[in-house]
Amino acid sequence: MSEQLVSAGTAATLLIGLVIAVVYVRYMWGALSRAVRTRDEVDTGQDRYRHSLIGALIAVVGSALAISAFGLGPALLYLGPGLALLSAVAVARCLRTEYVDE
Amino acid sequence: MTDTTPSAVTLTPDTSFTPWQGIATQVAIGAVLLLLVYYIKTQLVRTTKDFVIANRKIGFGFGVAGMISIWTWAMAVMMSAAQTYSYGLSGLFWFTVPNGLAVIAVIPFARKIRALMPSGYTIPEFVRERFGGARFAVGVVIVGALFGSLIEIIINLKGTALVTSAVFGVDPNLAAVIGLAVVLVYSALGGLWSSVSTSTVSTLLHTVPPAVVVVAALYKAGGATAIWNSVAAQGNQLLSVTRSDAATGFGITLALGLITATVAGQEYWQLAWGLKKKDVSRTFLWAGAWFYPIPICLGILGLVGLGLHVDLQRDLGGDAAAIGPYLISHLGLPSWVVFAYVIVVLTACYSVIDSAFTAISSVFVVDVIKPLAPHISDRSLYAWAKAPMVLAAVIAALVVLTGADFVTIVLTSYAIRTAILVPLVLSLFWSRMTGAGFVWGTILAIAIGMPIRSVYGELVGSLSILAISAVVPVLLGLRNSARYDFEQLKKLRDATDLSAPASEPPLPTAPITT
Question: Where residue B340 sits, what CATH number does that domain have?
Answer without folding.
Answer: 1.20.1730.10
